[in-house]
Amino acid sequence: MIRLQNIEKSYRHGLSQTFVLRRVNAEIKQGDFVSIMGPSGAGKSTLLHILGMHDSAWTGEYWLHDDPIHQLSAKDRMRLQKQHIGFVFQSYHLLDNLTVYENIDLPLSYRDVKKAEREGMVADILDRFNIVGKKDLFPNQLSGGQQQLVAIARAVVAKPSLILADEPTGNLHSDQGKEIMELFRRLNEAGTTIVQVTHSKENASYGKRVINLKDGWIVDAN
Amino acid sequence: MLIQDIRYALRSFRRAPGFTLVALVTLALGIGGTTAIYSIVDGVLLRPLPYSDPGRILRINRIGATGGLDSFSAADYRDLKKDATSFAALAGFRSDIVDMTGRSEPVRIIGMQTTAAFFDAFDAAPLLGRTYHEATDKPGAAVAVISETTWRQQFGSNPAVIGTQVRLNGAPTEIIGVVPEYLRHPQKSDVWMLSPFDVPTSPFGVDGNDSRDIHYFGVVGRIAHDRQVVEAQQQLKSIGDQIARDQKGNAGSTFRGEPLASSMVADVRTAMLVLLGAVGFVLLIACANVAGLLIARGAARRRELAVRTALGAGRARLIQQLLTESLVLALVGGALGMLVATWTQQLLISLAPENLPRLADVALDWRIAAFALIATIGVGALFGLTPALQSSKPELNTDLKDGGRGGTSRTGLRNVMVVAQVALALVLLIGAGLMLTSFARLRAVDPGFRVTEVVTVELMLPLARFDDTAQRNFYMAVHERLKANPITAQSAMLFPFPFGGGNAQAGLQVIGQPEKPPEQRTSADLYSVSPGYLQTVGVKLLKGRDFNENDGPKSPPVILISESAIKDFGGKDPIGEKVDMGDEFTVIGIVSDARRRSLDTPPRAAVYLPYTQFVLPYMGAVVRTDRGAGAVASAVKTAVAQIDPDLPIGDVKTMEQIIEESTGEPRFRSFLIASFAVLALMLAAVGVYGLISFTVTQRVPEIGVRLALGASPRQVFAQVIGQGLRLAVIGVVLGLVAAAAATTLVRGLLFNTSATDPLVYGSLAALLLAMAALACYVPARRAMRVDPMTALRSE
């Protein structure tokens, strides 16, 4: 599904150049559940944002399915991102001004899905995530776990084949964290490919394999 | 999608009440003020006159040898009428005070005596009855048309008014029609009377004459359908030039035709456009202010916009959403602005000087609503686009991590907005400062006569009932009675009142001095006064004697001259010298100069004649008293009623009122520009405050670090104030340069004031800097009080 060849990212400071990622080669198959681990500053989040196409200033080859992302225009990347990818953030990033329903509806509206169809899809997700009763609440009326649940619902509502999660349980206490990881496992079992960045070995154990990064290099991938 | 964006926009504004309130008040003031002023400019300058094909109606003026506008003489008019083939209609008209009698109470109204083609030129359909026309009504037909107001007020809107006989200035006349209220051009009138001659009757009692020397009426014409305006104007000029060549007295003069609408507003056009420009500045400042607020809000919303992008929103989609928000804000601000415009317009109309032309045409209608809508959408796009373009490019990696905090790179554009606001506000402040200085200097001018405790009463006489002798006898009798009354004991008779419309001049030729051709003689203002005038109004007798009761109609003609006329006497003592002004007059005294036309027109040479020797039916009484206008009015009314019970008295005004009215227009525009400048100053202060306050909020962690590293609160305070003042100084420098360029436009409106007066520039720049420092003070105090521990923990 994903093939990375010699991905590199660096910043230039005058004459010197600081590398954040170096010659990253990796392959992620359809249905995989991959955890990216490593110490702070290793380049984990940077790699995730490259996968999510939030970052375009890098070199190397990135293939998603059979599409060469490294050769595509910003517009085409955006199209593929909308088609395939859902994103979950450590600090949820729900929009404060929108209700739970509207937050979940947002990615569909950006994909020009018709209103009637959107209503059905959002209702289905609310039902699946068991948050129908919270649909008219605003994010600040929810607990951290509930907010992350809504954020995941928002990430999957457009039926992405790939979910990218950046430390999804980082701001949650352990019970809530477990609940979220169980949810990821169920999504993975249903066929969604998941790539998460995590510091927690326990969370990584929900996945099928780990990519370890250090100083921008892949030091161990299994 | 759009509806969703609008809903989200409304909700987000509800959730940010502080931002929304400031933005809406700013926009409402900006859009409302601009719309109100635009409505005045539209009514006065832009709206077409309410006649068919109004662009073809020309006001025709005679331009004298010195380039000034002059009235027409009967002979010039007849020549013009004979040769002006480009015109379908050409009519002479003259405004007059008319006493309408023959019904219950005699009433005094403003009338216009016109030749038969007057309504052909205006082509205005009557409301009732008919108007008179050249083809159907011959001079001498005793007919008149009344205005809608007169019909309503004097005839109770009775349709049977048509055919009614009234006496107008004593002459029996039939009312044949009523014209709608909008027909009030070229001057406001209550009744239009057909002249008994082919020219309007003369105010000097010489009618049907063929004189070229007595200029007393205006001309208006309608250009024929098959002729162009330029063609007609050229023809007027060539006719005028030909008469100037043929007639010695017309040497150097010509005729000029100007579209009626522009001729009416020529005096106020510059002032109106300056006002519109000034309020446009306020609108720009308001835009810059709201744009600054939006940029700050955009910076605080970086996380939200990054999330939206991560969820699939393209840049165009984000721009659409942000622009929708701006437009929603602008539309709500515009709706509030229309309310502000309605109130402001009413206020402006109540404050506007009565002599502002076409004030009655000012209205808030679809034209103004369309302007407000276009302004609103334009404003929404103007203040929304830059922040939208900037905010729609989130840096996902950092913005998602930062959550919209930190990073001051995005304050750059806000700095630009603040600098622009300060610069624009300074231009307005300087404009206002110059206008107010000019106005203060104008009001400080000594007119050369007493202003306090002087009351004037107009006492015009209908020519039909009062010939020269009757006029003289009437005014002498009134004066006798006034002197006998303790309230009006210190009084005199006078023509004309200062700063009024009355006017008479004569070319001075001192006998014994080299003979000058008529056009090179000093043109002296003529006054007709009774004995006691000088003491009553405080004009000083510098030499010789004043008029006395012995200067009667049959005694040798005598005059007083003003200081400015002395130069014509070639260094000789004028007392005892003789002057040729048609007849020979002996100079018996010299008096101090006094202004006659306005405070800003320097005094000209003046000649005073005794009212017994130069009588006009337009005189009035001037009374020095501390008893007030009411007491004077009733004393004069009693005196007049004893002589002629059918004669109403005219306007009663104090000299202070006359001065007040004469400075109405500059006062109005100075007041308006000063109001805009104060508004601009406040908006700029809000802009500076908003930026510095926002910057301080963003820099709390940094300030915490500085304090933790040993910076004193005073140093932090100085740094924050310094940041605001740096921007203000840049704005002030740019504003000074822009003001020096922009104020050349108002140079013509200034009296005794340089458009680059350094005192005005310097003091207002200092005021603006002080205001900016004040605006920085509150956030700077907040920065001083940052607790390093809390700040660092939140980091």
Brief write-up:
By secondary structure, chain A is α/β, with parallel strands linked by helices.
Report on the structure:
The complex is a heterodimer of chains A (222) and B (795). Chain A has 222 residues and is α/β, with parallel strands linked by helices. Chain A contains seven helices and ten strands. Chain A has helices at residues 44-51, 74-84, 100-110, 115-128, 144-156, 174-189, 201-204; strands at 2-13, 16-28, 33-37, 59-64, 67-68, 85-88, 162-166, 193-197, 209-214, 217-221. In chain A, α5 (144-156) runs parallel beside α6 (174-189). In chain B, the strands form two sheets. Chain B has a six-stranded mixed beta barrel. In chain B, α10 (315-351) packs antiparallel against α11 (366-391). The interface between A and B is medium-sized, with 26 and 23 residues.
Which short descriptors sum up this protein?
heterodimer, A: 222 residues, alpha/beta, 6-stranded mixed sheet, 4-stranded antiparallel sheet, 35% helix, 28% strand, B: 795 residues, alpha+beta, 6-stranded mixed β-barrel, 22 strands, 49% helix
Helix and strand layout, with pairings?
The complex is a heterodimer of chains A (222) and B (795).
Chain A: E1 2-13, E2 16-28, E3 33-37, H1 44-51, E4 59-64, E5 67-68, H2 74-84, E6 85-88, H3 100-110, H4 115-128, H5 144-156, E7 162-166, H6 174-189, E8 193-197, H7 201-204, E9 209-214, E10 217-221
Parallel strand pairs in A: 3-8, 3-9, 6-7, 7-8
Antiparallel strand pairs in A: 1-2, 1-4, 4-5, 9-10
Helix pairs in contact in A: 3-4, 3-5, 5-6
Chain B: H1 2-14, H2 17-46, E1 57-63, E2 69-70, H3 74-83, E3 87-101, E4 107-114, H4 118-122, E5 128-129, E6 143-147, H5 148-155, E7 165-168, E8 171-179, E9 191-194, E10 218-223, H6 229-246, E11 254-259, H7 260-265, H8 269-300, H9 302-310, H10 315-351, H11 366-391, H12 396-402, H13 411-443, E12 454-458, H14 468-484, E13 491-495, E14 505-510, E15 522-529, H15 533-537, E16 541-544, E17 558-562, E18 578-581, E19 583-591, E20 606-610, E21 620-624, H16 628-643, E22 652-654, H17 655-662, H18 664-698, H19 700-708, H20 713-742, H21 758-784, H22 788-794
Parallel strand pairs in B: 4-9, 6-8, 15-20, 17-19
Antiparallel strand pairs in B: 1-2, 1-10, 1-11, 3-4, 3-7, 3-10, 5-8, 6-9, 7-8, 12-21, 12-22, 13-15, 13-21, 14-15, 14-18, 16-19, 17-20, 18-19
